[in-house]
Structures are given as C-alpha cells and as structure tokens.
Amino acid sequence: MTFSARHLLGIEPLHPVEITTILDLADKYVDLNRQPNKHGDALRGLTQINMFFENSTRTQASFELAGKRLGADVMNMAMQASSIKKGETLIDTALTLNAMHPDLLVVRHPHSGAVDLLAQKVNCAVLNAGDGKHEHPTQALLDALTIRRAKGRLHRLNIAICGDISHSRVARSNLILLGKMENRVRLVGPPTLMPSGIGEFGVEVYEDMAEGLKDVDVVMMLRLQRERMDGGFIPSEREYYHRYGLDAEKLAHAKPDAIVMHPGPMNRGVEIDGDIADDINRSVIQEQVEMGVAVRMAAMDLLARNLRAPKDEGVYV
C-alpha cells in the first residue's frame, strides 16, 4: 500500500487505500500510546509549527502531543497576538514561516480555502486542522478509526449524522470519508440546518429523529455551530433539544448495539443528554479523543516519510 500525499488538506483527494493506510498505522500508535514509554522517533529532527487562528482544545492539544511523542520540535504560535492582528496578510505570514524552514505546518483557520492557500506558498507538509465550513480531515479519520475498532469494520454500516450539518466541516469530511468506504449515510436535522444541494451528496435526509435513527449502527451527533450562524436557525435551544437532542427515547430507535459519537465540545442538554454521553456501553466519545492523538501521529509520520523520500515517490508501508 502507498501513501503519496504531500499535504493533508482534506479527505476528498485521498484514495480509500490511503485512508486505510493511515488507519492501520494509527492502530499501531494506539498501542504505543498505551505503553509506559509512549515515545517514538518518526519525527526526530523535524520541526512542527501549530498555527491556530481559531480557538481549539482537543485538536491543538492532540497535534502537539502527537508531535512531541514522535520526537518533533513543536512550536505553538499564538495567532491571536501575531502579526496578522497588525495587518500582515496570510501570504506574508506564510513566507515568513517558510524562511524558518519548518517541516510540518498544522493550521486551523476560520475561512474555507485558507489552509490550501498556505500550502501553495510553503515548502513543508501542511495539515488542515479545520478550515471554515470546508473540511476537518483528521477528525473524520479519527472518527473512522473509532468506528472501525468498535464495529470491526468500516464498510456497509448504517450511519446517522445528526444536527447542524450546514455549518459543520466535521460533517462534510465524514460524509466524504464514509462514502468512499461504502457506508450508507443518513443526515438528520431541521431543514434550516441542512446545506443547499444536499441531495447531490448521495445521502438520505430526515427531519425526524425516530425515522432517521431507525436501525442505524452509528449515531454521530454534532454541536450547534453558533459562531458560524448569522440568523435564527432554531426557535430555541429547549425546542431543539426536544426535537433533535439525543436521549434514551430517541436512541432506542437505533440498533441495540449502536454506538454514540460526538466530536466535541459537547453542549449537554442541547444536542445530547448527559447520561447518554457518559454511558460506557454506548458512548465512544472518550475513545474518539484517544484515537485523535494516534491518527495525528500516523498522518504526520506518513507525511514526514514523503518529505524524506525521493521526489515523486510515494511511501510504502
């Protein structure tokens, strides 16, 4: 199997074999992360710069931890206090960083396409940690790894993604990945939170949770992306929870062994009931956090191998 990508900007360019390659390597890193000595040397001698133009807890922490566990020199740039605030353009920032000769650049940005623009201007590998409403590839990959480990496979499953689909880059990346891996995907939520042209994605769309969750293997809840909303998309949080918040009554429509997922951060009592989120027999939310570190280790490892490989050659793993 090969992994030939120079950057990880989205799920869309990845072949199913490349997705499997990342997940297989991530499985090995899960085992490493559970050992007393959690350190490898795949990134030894390399420099990793994390640039988060949006606030983040899980993603930034897991990328930092992933880099350090693999031996990289990791620097977190405080973008809120950076020269961007003084009027420097994104291009000038990229050129400045390029002059420092980093090897891995991890970027989260509020505007779709910004990370791709940076990747065109730097000589290092770029990983998209979320750009606007576009993509969040490592989140989809960690979700895929969580599903595969819980269900024993990542194909021909019935998966419901519920909530704020329209504003969610997590939903978009998961839609692409799960589709590539031959799963049946359903979107469940109010019409106001469904993107236009959703019928082109080849998915089933439901307004009713009972219908949408019927006999599914996986229930993936999404938070309300209030920071990306510019109007009244829901009547109230109370009404939203009543109709679309995941509780025991709604979950009963899924298969008895269905797992519950959430990318975080969670709004308990809005999109998910706290008891469901904490149910160790159904919820894999904490497993998602654990898989996040392993997936990011795997992604950076594979990109680093391509940095070191002869030009135009993919890495064989």
Automatic annotation (TrEMBL):
UniProt-recorded name of the protein: Aspartate carbamoyltransferase
Job description of the protein: Catalyzes the condensation of carbamoyl phosphate and aspartate to form carbamoyl aspartate and inorganic phosphate, the committed step in the de novo pyrimidine nucleotide biosynthesis pathway. Reversibly catalyzes the transfer of the carbamoyl group from carbamoyl phosphate (CP) to the N(epsilon) atom of ornithine (ORN) to produce L-citrulline.
Self-association state and partner proteins as the record states: Heterododecamer (2C3:3R2) of six catalytic PyrB chains organized as two trimers (C3), and six regulatory PyrI chains organized as three dimers (R2).
Gene behind the chain: pyrB
InterPro entries per UniProt: Asp/Orn_carbamoyltranf_P-bd (IPR006132), Asp/Orn_carbamoylTrfase (IPR006130), Asp/Orn_carbamoylTrfase_sf (IPR036901), Asp_carbamoyltransf (IPR002082), Asp_carbamoyltransf_Asp/Orn-bd (IPR006131)
Domain Aspartate/ornithine carbamoyltransferase Asp/Orn-binding: 157-302
Catalysed reaction, written as an equation: carbamoyl phosphate + L-aspartate = N-carbamoyl-L-aspartate + phosphate + H(+)
Source organism of the structure: Actibacterium pelagium
Gene Ontology terms describing biological process: 'de novo' pyrimidine nucleobase biosynthetic process; 'de novo' UMP biosynthetic process; amino acid metabolic process
Record flagged with keyword Transferase: yes
Binding site for carbamoyl phosphate: R58, T59, R108, H136, Q139, G264, P265
Domain of life: Bacteria
Top EC class of this enzyme: transferase
Keyword match Calcium: no
